[in-house]
Amino acid sequence: MKIVMIWLFLIFLQGIHSQELKRQMLASAGSSQLVSSQAGTYFIQQSVGQHSVIGSYRAANNELRQGFVQVLPAIVLGGDPNELEVVVYPNPFTNGVVVNFEQGLEDEISVSIFDMSGRLVQSNAYEATNQLTIPLLGLAQGAYFLKLGSGQQQTVKQLLKR
Asked: pLDDT-derived band of residue 33, with 50, 70 and 90 as boundaries?
């Protein structure tokens, strides 16, 4: 009998101290429909649990959004616009590397070589060009990072010295 009473007491305590549901989301399901009127064509979305349409309004630099379903973030395809498009060869290298720039550059090119611990090993600046030959004779065998910059654009490539 004592065991049954203890068991019931524990069940009672569990019920008192159990978690409560504070917020619930059914899903992002709902409906969407393309509607045409004299004023134009609109894409209307409605999510489960929402009693009004979802929409956004833009004026000047302001945007007003209504509803559970929000605009998806934009995904930029084609890479970072601030990254220099380069081809570095040969890699692994022996005496130096050649850098071909995919786009024409107008600003000075800064070149920095770092070892694997992040120490700056070599740094130079060159005039803007489409192809750059970088001599790397004094480097020991190992891995390095080549940082190239021109204006607001930059890129980092990993190099291996034989």
From this structure: low
114-124 exposure pattern, b = at least 16 Cβ within 10 A, e = fewer: beeeeeeebee
CB 84 within 8 A of CB 155: yes
Count of domains observed in the chain: 2
Question: What is the pTM assigned to this prediction?
Answer: 0.52
Whether the upstream peptide bond of residue 92 has omega within 30° of 0, thus cis, is: yes
H or E element in which residue 14 lies: helix 2-16
> For residue 159, which of 117, 129, 118, 115 has the smallest C-alpha distance?
115
Given a contact cutoff of 8 angstroms between Cβ atoms, the answer to whether 89 and 131 are in contact is no
Together in a domain, 157 and 90: yes
If asked whether residues 94 and 151 sit together in one domain, one would say yes
Do 148 and 154 meet the contact criterion of CB atoms below 8 Å apart?
yes
